[in-house]
Amino acid sequence: MRILVISDIHANLTALEAALADAGAVDAVWCLGDVVGYGPDPNECIARLSSLPNLVCLQGNHDAAAIGELPLESFNHEARVSIEWLHGILTPDSLNFLRSLTPMRRERDVTLAHASPRQPVLEYLLDSYSALENFAFFDTQLCFVGHTHVPVLFIEHGVAINLQIPDAGSEFTLEARCIANPGSVGQPRDRDPRAAYVIFDPEHSTWQQFRVPYAIAEVQSRMQAAGLPGRHINRLEGGW
Ligand code: ZN
Q: Which CATH superfamily is domain 3-103+168-174+183-238 in?
């Protein structure tokens, strides 16, 4: 069984299409949140996601802000500008889609949380210490998160954490308890600008990391035309 695990699409349809084409046929799609925010194609990304088989989608902090469920004060100035732009462009269908999401749920015995199981909306799991604390906040073997835009595996190893950064093309068998992040489709932040996604096979517990290039300049020119912040336009090509 092939489950496509993606996160942080951030309204980047070109990156999403590249990941979907590269992944090929899948049985289900688990999207860990932040479908919108930053990018130029929020309605298009929601429509495309909705067309995918057996979609499970979480609500990220940008998705929550887009429907007024999270105060704009929790974002920096430029992120706020792009969320205010969203308020004027989301269609009623998109708003209904975003309102139907929750930031955490359980699927096939895997805990899914946008940010972390302890704080599913806002906590950044960037280091082993905070990851270790989070193992007390879910009771399944596996927990998949997004939010940091960096692919990583935090594997429980006694009282410590074994941290793995999965390279493109690498495959791990998830045997111990583990918090896993597939990275970001639409705005990677690990200095690799390629769209990130994972194929998870729940029967064999395998986690395969992929990266796929996409036409970044096309996205940048749509962002420019929409008047979105320059810093967000620039960062796409550097992957930061
Ligand atoms: Zn995000």
A: Metallo-dependent phosphatases (3.60.21.10)
